[in-house]
Amino acid sequence: MGEGIGGQGKSRSILVAGAGPVGLAAALELARRGFSPRVVDDGAGPTPLEESRALGVNARTLTLLSPSGVAERIVAAAQPIEQFRVRSKEKTLVQLDTRQVRGRFSAIRALAQGHTERLLMEALATYGIAPEWQTAVVADAISDFQKPEVLLRRADGRSETVRPDILIGADGAHSVVRKALGAGFPGEALETYFYLADFRYAGPVDTHYGEVSIFDPGMVARLPVSADIIRYISTLENFENRIVHPATVAKKTWASQFRINFRHVEPMAKGNIFLAGDAAHIHSPAGARGMNLGIEDACWLAWLIAEGREQEYSALRIPAVKQVLKQTYGLTRLVTMKNPLAIAVRNLVAPLFPRFGPARRALLQSVAGYDTPRPPWIDWAE
Q: Is the full-model pTM beyond 0.70?
């Protein structure tokens, strides 16, 4: 294993801005390789379990988190999604068995983002590292990309100036680090609003499948959150009237609305400052690739830093990012289209697609996250 540029190796100071799943994964993978990263976040703690935005954990992420032991903990805690289907009225357009993907793990599981974060924090704690909460990065502009200077400000008003050897911006879509770099975030926002509601049920419910019901126009997606909670996501403001609840509702645990953006920064690094996850790219939740792609960024970056090859990071990650943005854009357009002729063609062609073996395998590979380059530091086949 390389010892880093200039012989500094693992003594280099690394500051990770953001203690979401991406920042925590980066810190864990660095710690596993002998580094002692510092993790700061302006929030009060990890994502509340009842407000978890990301749900899907794909096979690629489990592969990446296997060496740290976190994958096995996720598998034990997560809800397996064995089937995924897309329906239009009474017709099933697409149906996939996610267990048919080759490899050690099934294609995708559901686990609340807050739970994933807590499992990563537990693993990180074994290295004596814990996030510093309510500690914000303040950086109006960074002038020295090789040895960045940033101000850390705590909730009690105390501040500290630090000059890490490496700065990792994993601080979300409104990234302070990205803005301090002066990097643009080009792309587009969809005009359509999306609405979300999580329901806890009083009786047993089937959480082993995910489903998208298309109403032309509009859609309602159904995804498991936990053994007794199901999430519904829709483009229809009054979508709750269309939900066929599988059991008696005990409580609506969370509701939200959001607009979808498709944006990415290029390059994803300047000097010794690196962007990962939502700080570098945002897109539709279609395909459950958001958190997973960010964790992939984090693990690749940690490996490259350990090998002294971190300057290759952007060139290695940009193709995967562009590919996923293109895929999620296509999937989102597919379920939100309004043109009657386009809808008729989709409903005719979509059922034929998965029947073609190579097409079905490609779709499963995408759901599993196996359509991006394999991590060369993990020596077992998918």
A: yes
